[in-house]
């Protein structure tokens, strides 16, 4: 085995090129995060496990140094009315950004915390009486998204909303990570 400085430099360069290549292969393309009104969404494959996607999203929110303040089980609430859907709302907050945002303009409090939504699209909503598939296996891709905090600040006529812009950037990073982990669904 060669251990000359030239050989070691060559090996180090090769490893560097490989790691750059791997990093480029996992970069999320800008067009994978879609705009829907003032919301940002990604479409994950329908064969992904819904509960696992929700758990992964919570983990990624925490990894981005945000707090998960609440998980609303929209689907559980609707089931009592005979509607079978998969739908969760995850409230998230980053206290450091909230502090800055409130200093910029306390009216931002009207739209906090930030909310991620995770739901499964389906061809139709299944009523409990006609349920042909178990609730965990509804057809359709999984949608993960959030309403743009910067757009919400603009809607409130908040002129200085740097913290809201930073929140948008960080939350988009969470969506990018979800795409890295799950890939994207086919376009309709």
Termini gap? 54 Å
Number of helices: 6
- Specify the CATH homologous superfamily: TT1751-like domain
Main β sheet profile: 6 strands, antiparallel
Spatial strand arrangement across the major sheet = 1-2-8-6-5-3
Low-confidence stretches are 17-28
Please state roughly what percent of the residues sit in beta strands, choosing from under 5%, 5-15%, 15-25%, 25-35%, 35-45% or over 45%.
15-25%
Mean pLDDT: 84
Q: How many extended strands?
A: 8
Q: Would you tell me which CATH topology applies?
A: TATA-Binding Protein
Q: Give the class from helix and strand content and strand pairing.
A: alpha+beta
Order of helices and strands: HEEHEHEEHEEEHH
Estimate the helix proportion, in percent. Answer: 40-55%
Per the principal axes of the C-alpha atoms, what is the gross shape?
A: globular
> For the CA atoms, what is the radius of gyration?
21 Å
Task: Domain count, please report it.
Answer: 1
CATH class: Alpha Beta
Brief synopsis:
The chain is of the alpha+beta class. It has six helices and eight strands, in the order αββαβαββαβββαα.
């Amino acid at each position: 085995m060669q251990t000359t400085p030239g050989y070691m430099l060559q090996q180090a360069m090769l490893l560097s090129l490989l790691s750059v290549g791997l990093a480029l292969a996992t970069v999320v393309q800008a067009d994978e995060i879609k705009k829907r009104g003032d919301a940002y969404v990604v479409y994950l494959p329908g064969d992904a496990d819904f509960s696992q996607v929700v758990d992964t999203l919570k983990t990624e929110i925490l990894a981005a140094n945000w707090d998960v303040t609440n998980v609303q089980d929209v689907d559980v609430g609707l089931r009592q009315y005979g509607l079978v859907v998969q739908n969760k709302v995850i409230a998230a907050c980053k206290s450091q950004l909230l502090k800055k945002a409130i200093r910029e303009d306390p009216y931002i409090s009207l739209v906090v915390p930030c909310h991620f939504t995770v739901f499964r699209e389906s061809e139709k909503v299944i009523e409990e009486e006609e349920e042909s598939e178990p609730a965990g296996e509804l057809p359709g891709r999984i949608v993960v998204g959030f309403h743009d905090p910067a757009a919400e600040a603009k809607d409130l006529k908040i002129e200085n909303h740097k913290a809201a812009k930073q929140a948008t950037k960080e939350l988009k990073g969470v969506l990018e990570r979800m795409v890295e982990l799950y890939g994207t669904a086919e376009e309709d």
